[in-house]
Amino acid sequence: MPAAVTTSLQFIPYLLVTPIAGLVVDRVNRIRLVMTCHALRAVLLALAGLLAANGSLSAPVLWLTVFLAGALNALASVGTLALVPDLAPEGGLAKANSRLQLSMSITQVIGPSAAGLLLAVSGNLVFLAIALAFALAAAMIVRTRTREVEREQAPADSWLANIAAGARFVRRTTALWVLLLQMTLFNLFEQAVITLFMLFALRELDLDSTQVGLVFGAGAIGSVAGAWLAPRFKSTRGISAILVLSTGLASVAPCALTFVPEGSPAVSMAMSGLTFCLYGFGLTVFNVHSNTLRHQMAPRELQGRLAAVFRTSAFTSVALGAALGGALAEHIPFRTAIGIACTGLVSAFVLFAVLLPRATRGAASSA
């Protein structure tokens, strides 16, 4: 129960804070905001580490720390996404988004191993190591300079109306709501597949937790490759072709999980690892170019609220997808359940492939 509470408090702030974070990001200096978030997280985790070292870290204090850190994470993530157009040189949006995705993908590869090593030495070191990382990030941002961006003056509307400006912009922009629809459906069914595969691998494929971790690690390696190569992909049909092909790979690849054989852990790991590697590659290429398209289509003074709309949708659909996967696992065999979730993925992809080219006609082929 305490572990479940801790996990929930890590993600609940994303749903509560993200919609408001978009307006905050669009009203203040984004560099200072992200730097402050990093610094405050460093302080929070350093204090938690010191309390843990003294044996004084109670469950309520830990839960409060996790909740506050999650709220700062939500604010910083929206701020970071909105910062990209301010920092990227002219014509360099795709490369900038690629570097952002690359850093995230590398941490997915290194982070779990580093955390495991630190936990093996001392659990308190995890708090202090992460606090040090945030402190270094804050220090690195201090000297960062962005182009001057004219901030939108807050209109006389209510706070709720100002917060909803991002959603209104998405509703009026066909390409953006098509992107939002695809990302919502993809996250829903993708998370169901991941939840079901974890149970399937542990209960029927006879993989242990380390082997399952290696399978997901292959997905992170695919993400690194996708982030590295994404800016190099060009198409005469424009950015929509890249988005369709990459999300197609990410949607179709998981279907192979329904054919993973039982009785041979080595074969199961190899086939599942390749599947997640292809999925990670396609998803990351899609993320780079979808972020680029969003940055191209929205005015800079609205980037925070636009990011908040997509982030809120992402976290909501991920939570629902995990619940869907758990519900399917309770009532039908794992292979059948994974097949149903994959059918959802492929159906969403087909809808996206039909709608997006029409919606992005005339969009730039590169950034």
Task: Please give a structural write-up.
- α7 (165-172) crosses α12 (303-331).
- The chain is an all-alpha fold.
- The chain is built from 13 helices and no strands.
Report strand %.
under 5%
The CA-CA distance between the termini, in Å, is: 48 Å
CA-based gyration radius: 21 Å
Structural class by helix and strand composition: mainly alpha
The ordered string of helix (H) and strand (E) elements is: HHHHHHHHHHHHH
Residues in helix, %: over 70%
Number of β-strand runs: 0
How many helical elements? 13
Residue ranges: pLDDT <50 for 5 or more in a row? Answer: 362-367
If you average the pLDDT, what whole number results? 84
Tell me, briefly, the overall form: globular
The main pleated sheet reads as: none
List keywords for this structure.
367 residues; mainly alpha; 13 helices; 80% helix; globular; disordered C terminus
